[in-house]
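Reading group handout, session on sequence-to-structure problems. Before we discuss, look at one worked example. The prompt was deliberately terse, the way you'd type it at a terminal:

> structure ASPIC/UnbV domain-containing protein

The input record follows.
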Amino acid sequence: MKKNITRKINYLRLNKPLVALLSGVLATYSVNSSAVTFSDIATQVDAGIDYRRVESPIDALWDPIRQGVFFFEDFPTAPGATRGAPGVALLDFDNDGDLDIYVTNGPGVANSLYANQLKETGQLSYVDVGASSGAGAIEQDSSGVCFGDIDNDGDDDILVLGVNESNRLFKNNGDKTFEDISISSTIGNGIHNPSSCTMGDINNDGLLDIYIGNSYNNWSHRLPIMLFGFENLIESNQLFLNAGNNVFTDVSETSGILTQKEITWAVAMVDYDQDGDLDIISADDQGGKLPTKFGGLDVGFIRIYNNDGSGQFTDVTASSGTMQYGAWMGLAFGDLNADGNMDMFASNLGDYSGLFVGGALGIPYAPGDWSSSWYLGNADNQFTRASVGALVATPFGWGADISDYDNDGDADIVYHGGADFATYQDGSNPGAMLLNDGSANFTYDVLALSQSTNHTRRNVRGVVMGDLNNDGFSDIVSVSAQNWPQFAPLVPMLPFPLGSPFDGSATLWPAFFPLDATNPAAGFVWSGIDPEDGTLSVEINSADNDNHWVKIKMLGTKDITEKGSVNRNGIGSIIKFTPQDGQTAMLPVIGGSSYASQSSLEKTFGLGVEDYATIDILWPGGVRNKLYYAHASENILFPEIPCSYADESLNPHEYSHCVLSSLKQIKQQGFIDYSQFYHFYFSALKAYHDYREL
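And the output record:
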């Protein structure tokens, strides 16, 4: 297969314009017996979703370009992300038990905060309170968003990033309003061009810190993406330590995270080595710069910074197996092959744009170099990039998540995305839904979105998942920067198939047409078609396969129990979930990943046909708690019990006393009832005994 693709690459280089429609590509895929489908309620009038992403100020820079002839050599100076780079987050900002949607927008229009009306009306619909809540950031050209309870007062605060302007931090007042504390917190100091942020406690003091991934100054061109020699325009990422009282200190220069300055699109704080402290992972972009093997230099890696437990980091990329170049865009985490190790998915340029850009710009391409890929972790905390297997090729991607969306007991991959390549927009990703067989072998679930929105016409950026209607199945929310009109043509990206199930949907939007189809050097002229404003897609899971589930929400008990030390959200925890006769699933609780976005902190685990499961928690700081006999359809608030069943220094009496006193304090403050108190208490005793019987 690789030899065949290589021959076809040579053909494409000699035929740079698109020359023919793809013909008769028969995509093979498997249909899971427990399949689910999705439908987009955002198109329904009564849903209350009216989001439209407005243009960024730099969109005006395209006006003179559209009036003339555009050449390949003009690409590095062409403005990028002119319709914005929106992100989205799922949070329960008003603590009413259902997930709300925060989505960013451009200047002059408030960011939307869609308050879920499920509790109020019994129906899934939304009311936009972005402007009235005080978290609208109306004048900001907003990009990424992340959230967390930075002051441990019981409600989620929101960080909104700004393109070529200050970031905005909104403190939740607990009464459905927010206060802008950007200046007093110091988060709003300075001007950068960030895309993504993530929250987590890097020094285990119970307070959420913030990491921000920056790109380059500024997006009116693409010079650092396309060419070496413009490294001075690349902006360093930033790490802010929470000093308490909603004030942050910039520790970027002293924490060890500035080993390399590259264009970063996605970031995450996750305990990938499961040692009880949060590490930092960033997705960096090679762009159009030649890799080392073709005479250039590899710069775009998935970079890993290992935490020593005190908030000091060491760059371990070279020894971790992720030092492979790519145009890395989005990140997601979980255990894909049920071996107990943390795995990761990273979205990339994709094989279709990799081939097309290679042919058009003369950039060499090797099959698989630009695939959106999953990395499998091992017991030595190293990652191996897995083959995409039967998929053969994968499309471009931005936002991504790992979630068991069919609740069959293994972690699936969802990722969307469309790229802006000036003369065309990549439409190769119809909404990639990758079903797991339980061993990290994936098939394209083509039916999942077959009755939903056509994402090939949406330039999707942010993608998140969570249970919006509280039926125990994960739903998908995505936001696009721009959309291609229904009347406008979609052109096949390649003149030949790759043998992938994505071949039939691998299209592009022709923003420009070649003056001479036989001589692309003659230049390109504007097609005359303007894209439409970006939209929000809210795709609801059909939840009709009868698979069972359990939902888990973490509760850190700093300032709740005497010994509690974990932030209120439990961000940084790792949840392991073992059905009674099934394999163990694992998901981390992350305060921002994907691209420019953050999924729900509440995690849904599939039971398949089973009725009970055991839950094993690794909290930040290393404490381990267990809950036995979690039953199907149960919504569990799992509190940090600051007494680890694995603590060898505690004798049975000391351990029992610690558990009992902690649970009493948690119950006294109304977080659990009597039944839950005893369930956690006897589970803790059993966990202590079972651990010593191993």
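Points for discussion. First: The two ends are 48 Å apart (CA to CA). Second: Confidence is low (pLDDT under 50) at residues 1-32.
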